[in-house]
Amino acid sequence: MKKRIALLLAALMLLAITACSAEKPASESPLASQEPAGEVSAEESTAQPGDQALTIGLSMYTLEYPFYVTMCDAFEAACEEKGWTCITTNASTDASTQLNNCLDLLNKDIDALVLTSWYGDALSEAFIAANEKNIPIFLMDTSTLPDEGEYVTRIGTVNYDGGMVGGMYAGQYLLEQGRSEVDAVALHSGDQVSVDRRDGILAGLEAAGVSVNMLNEYHSASREESMANFEDAMTTYAKIDLVVATSAQHGMGAYSAAEAAGRTEMLIAAYDGEAEEMEAIDNGTGTYLCTVTQDPVGMSETIAQQVEDYIFNGATYEQFQSAPAGVYGKDGQLSAADLGIG
């Protein structure tokens, strides 16, 4: 009997040893390879861009200026490359129209609203409506902001700083010609953007050592108005040394008027960096001295990428992102650093 019990105990011990040796090491256990309870892997917690084709509302304040046409085309191209739908509206420089356009876009099941405006402070209702719908807002080349409503980020050239680059170039050129005092007229729209640009150009001239006697300022909203205003200026003033123009439309309007009148004694310092301005600088009568350059394509491509990163990856950005300004003149394209700024 004792012998049978001993044999039975031995058999049980052998089975126990065999069972233990058959278990997998902890590192090979299915439980060991799982994420801890309540945690999700990074791959699962981040949506992938290809998972969803976005619909973006693009509200343009104007498409009457080549700068904004370039910006619009670049943003639409960036959306197309990403497989997104872009719904574009044009306010034709009317703030109330842009407000209505934005509100209409917000009712079209868009994933983000991108806008550029001269009068962002008039769009409070659209900002509030977007916030209520949890639709993020991204701003390009928008200087003024509403009192209410939040946005993700805005990108653009600081208009005063850009103007200063142009003014510094013009001032250095004038000094090289032995001219430290000039009689000037200014052409601008009268809005905050153009005022900041004008002030920047004048500050750059002063910083370069040129004293400006401002004969008069003319407000105009188009090239045709600028041309007519400058015709009046040339009739009123026998001598004009410098034209401070705060956009390509103002600059080219003055240039056309001066060319038609055969007046070549003045120089034009303008803003926008349009192709026709560069053509006038390179191959014109010599009156178009310089134009401040911006990067509308770069702004559009940056914002398109940031929309993607914000929606899919929860990226965050500074409230304002400065796009650098340069100047194109008789010496070609120059940066602010080339002129000793910054």
TrEMBL record:
Main location class: other
Keyword GTP-binding tagged: no
Cross-referenced CDD domains: PBP1_ABC_sugar_binding-like
UniProt keyword Signal present: yes
Leader sequence segment: 1-21
Chain segments carrying region Disordered: 27-48
Entries under Gene3D superfamilies matching the protein: 3.40.50.2300
Compartments it resides in: Cell envelope
A GO cellular component entry from the record: cell envelope
SUPFAM superfamilies linked: Periplasmic binding protein-like I
Residue stretches making up the Periplasmic binding protein domain: 56-311
GO molecular function, one term: carbohydrate binding
Keyword terms, alphabetized: Signal
Family the UniProt entry places it in: Belongs to the bacterial solute-binding protein 2 family.
PANTHER family documented for this protein: D-ALLOSE-BINDING PERIPLASMIC PROTEIN-RELATED
Name of the protein in its database record: Sugar ABC transporter substrate-binding protein
Source organism per UniProt: Anaerotruncus colihominis
